Amino acid sequence: MKRILTGLKPTGDLTLGNYIGTIRQMVNMQNDYDSFLFVADLHALTVYQDPKELNERIRKFIAMYLACGIDPNKNTIYIQSENEYIGALSFILECNTYYGEASRMIQFKEKSKENKNFSVGLLTYPVLMAADILYCDADYVPVGIDQKQHVELARDIAIRFNSRYGETFKVPEPLITEVGTKIYDLKNPTKKMSKSEENPGGVISLFDSPEEVKAKIMKSTTDSENSVYYDIENKPGISNLLTIASTLTNRTIEDISNEYKDKGYKEFKTYVGEVTANFIAKIQEKYKKIINSDLLDKVLDEGIEKSRKLAKEKYEKMILKTGNTRKDITKLQ
Within its chain, how far is the Cα of 33 from the centroid? Predict the structure, then answer.
């Protein structure tokens, strides 16, 4: 069975966009792949995080994954920082990565322009991402088109290391997520809904109350035409709401459009608000049971045991190949 690996950084709250764009697809794929799922908490440290808030988010993220349908019996679920070997692998991989490659990463270029006092971790975290992927010999990494560059870097590093030291890593492939699953900000529907977004009014959190969900949708940016139909270029706000409603109800966009085409935006938004609030309320009901049970620690203990075993084996293989050992490697070859 082919292996896939997915990580999500615990900054901000998980959003409806995260569910529709990532988590829902992971649920659909978990029967077909050996799935590894982790909270990329070390990646969050490229910018300062309040320790108490970060600690709370780590547990909340895993509990919400499970509430959304991630099956712990079909996924290896763990917290990145609990696997100490991944950091060790990352440094060796950094030594096989060129500065030009790391500095060309789009996120580094953008964020380093915003803040001249950026941390070294902002430059090197794509290599840590490569370590996340390569240690477990992932075949595929499900990513949006904007993250494909990071998987390509992991491929380049794996190929270079294999060429220098012998076959060590499986070369992963990006698994581009299906078109049409990107959810946009409710206030700025030309911009992706982000859990780190500064304007909370444009983001639906999976932890929002039903009243908050409905209010945000009712206040979402649309247009003055007052006719409901899908046109992502000219009607991005309405098109975004149609995508949300279609995804959560399994109805086609055409079916919903036909029902509300002549009813006006208020009635349409009321419908989308009800559908979304009810969906999130059901997830939250499951979440509350999980976060207050011992299931969370049981799942994470099992996941980190498997993850650490694989990473330890890969690390020991790497240091033998690079010569970082007291053993005479000529006698081991």
Answer: 17
